[in-house]
Design goal:
Distance between the termini: 63 Å
Largest sheet: none
Helix content: 40-55%
Structural class: mainly alpha
Strand content: under 5%
Oligomer: single chain
Number of strands: 0
Number of helices: 2
Shape: elongated
């Protein structure tokens, strides 16, 4: 079975993405939130003086 057309036709027809949002993923917001949480935890347990 030839699947060479799969990514050219099937995926483009089933995953609607706006042209200006092609470089983002649904998990970007989750990644940003986890990064912020980890920074807050690091700050909370840090022994250094805060500015």
């Amino acid at each position: 079975m030839d699947k060479s057309h799969y990514f050219d036709h099937v995926c483009n027809d089933t995953i609607p993405t706006l042209p200006d949002e092609e470089d983002t993923t649904p998990t970007d917001m989750v990644s940003d939130a986890v990064e912020e949480i980890m920074d807050n935890i690091k700050d909370a347990f840090s022994t250094e003086e805060r500015d």
